[in-house]
Model the fold of this input.
Amino acid sequence: MTTMKLIVQGPGAELAVLRRVAALALPASVRELSAHAIRFDGVADDEAVRHAVEKAAFEAQVDATFIAIDATLADYSLLAMDMDSTLITIECIDEIADMQGLKPQVAAITEAAMRGEIGFADSLRRRVALLKGLDADALRRVYDERLQLSPGAQTLLAAAKAADIKTLLVSGGFTYFTDHLRARLGLDYSNANSLEIVDGKLTGRIHGAIVDAEAKRETVNLVCDQLGIHASQAIVMGDGANDLQMMSIAGLSVAFRAKPVVRQQADVALNFSGLDGLLNVLKGGLAP
Done:
């Protein structure tokens, strides 16, 4: 039977808790990566064991990842990330809607779309239509006053840059935010939707084609082509149903604090750790 490594980690988690979770997998050896992360080697790739460990980890509010023993950050050449609720902590359109007193209505549509209950393009049109007449300055206010990077984002991006891994921000959100983040964080590529603005007001329409799940996948493929690499050399991170297509073509898919449908299909699920938890999963990251 194939053996794997198991990484158990969690912000503030006690090592005793991490060891207790991993004990279910009967690891052959143990290596502490940090005060809150442990690597266990020689773990059997067994579905029943995996299920038991992942269930225990979720109940203990820590992350457990089974991955090939030789997986390393150097295996990849592109890091592609969703924006809203992945690279950043907010859903920008919900916060824009809050400026109109419409956050509950828009957030409800957002949630349904993220769970895969409504087609993304349809949900986006419906949400953007509710913003008609809003002063475009609301975009700046959301960026300045509400947008925050997710925990571990800067550490992960710094590790990617050090490893000469290109970065792509691909979003069903808006270019106003992706453009600002690309410049601020030194990202290499970005793609998102463009809000139509006339006379300083949002018209309630999207300008140009909508960046939906299929467009996200195509963007990852396009950037891989430009870099002369295969999609198997890409890491793709996301949280919602509209990220599944681009995650499915990646060499490594990472669900970050994601909806259940996304967690179930991803190679790595970071439910409690920051984005830099990926560095513990891949030896050759910042972890010793």
